[in-house]
């Protein structure tokens, strides 16, 4: 039976777009079988999208020390419909910031803890222009979460 990995992202900059593409490349690696990767911009994700997914990858810029308004909107729309139904589901996070990302990380940690989701990989946090190593970390994040769903 196929599993669904939902990638909820806000990619307003070249750096977040690069990171998104690397995460997708990892999640869709040919060695990972039986996992459908669904991409949803954060402003369009619905509770149904969240409920139908078996795991999540969340991508956002850190704006003024906080997650993007778009990702916050996704959580606002989906939090209560998903509160009990998605408990224990695996997730990973990638963030891009030009300055502090701690507030964004803290907010995402708080919301995902409230949902009862299980972090299965460390956050990938990039400041400034992403390096080759940063892109490899993004690829690994996508592959790790997808492989976890594969079983």
Describe this structure in words.
With 151 residues, the protein is of the alpha/beta class. It has one domain: Rossmann fold. It contains five helices and seven strands. Strands 1, 2, 3, 4, 5, 6 and 7 form a seven-stranded mixed β-sheet that branches. α4 links the parallel β5 and β6. α1 packs parallel to α5. The mean pLDDT is 96.
Any chance you could write out the topology, listing elements then pairs?
Layout: E1 3-9, H1 14-27, E2 35-41, H2 47-52, E3 55-63, E4 66-67, H3 69-82, E5 90-97, H4 102-115, E6 118-119, E7 124-127, H5 132-150
Parallel strand pairs: 1-2, 1-3, 3-5, 5-6, 5-7
Antiparallel strand pairs: 3-4
Brief synopsis:
The chain is an alpha/beta fold and 151 residues long.
What share of residues is helical? 40-55%
* Global mean pLDDT: 96
Number of helices: 5
**What portion of the residues fall into strands of 2 or more residues?**
25-35%
The total strand number stands at: 7
| CATH level 4 superfamily | Flavodoxin domain
Provide the CATH topology: Rossmann fold
Radius of gyration: 14 Å
Element string (H = helix, E = strand): EHEHEEHEHEEH
> The biggest beta sheet, please?
7 strands, mixed
The domain tally reads 1
Question: What's the CATH C level?
Answer: Alpha Beta
Shape: globular
Known CATH architecture: 3-Layer(aba) Sandwich
Summing up helix and strand content along with how strands pair, one would put the structural category as alpha/beta
Protein name: Flavodoxin
InterPro entries: Flavoprotein-like_sf, FMN_Rdtase-like_dom
GO molecular function: oxidoreductase activity
Domain NADPH-dependent FMN reductase-like: 50-127
């Amino acid at each position: 039976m196929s599993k669904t990995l939902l990638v909820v992202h806000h990619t307003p900059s070249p750096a977040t777009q690069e990171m998104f593409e690397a995460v997708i490349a990892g999640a869709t690696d040919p060695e990972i079988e039986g996992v459908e990767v669904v991409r949803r911009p954060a402003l369009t994700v619905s509770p149904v999208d969240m409920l139908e997914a078996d795991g999540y990858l969340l991508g956002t810029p850190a704006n003024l020390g906080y997650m993007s308004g778009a990702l916050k909107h996704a959580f606002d729309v989906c939090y209560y419909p998903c509160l009990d139904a998605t408990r224990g589901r695996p997730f990973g996070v990638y963030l891009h910031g030009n300055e502090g990302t701690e507030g964004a990380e803290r907010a995402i940690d708080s919301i995902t803890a409230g949902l009862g989701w299980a972090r299965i990989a460390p956050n990938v946090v990039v400041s400034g222009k992403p390096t080759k190593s940063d892109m490899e970390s993004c690829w690994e994040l996508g592959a790790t979460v997808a492989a976890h769903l594969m079983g």
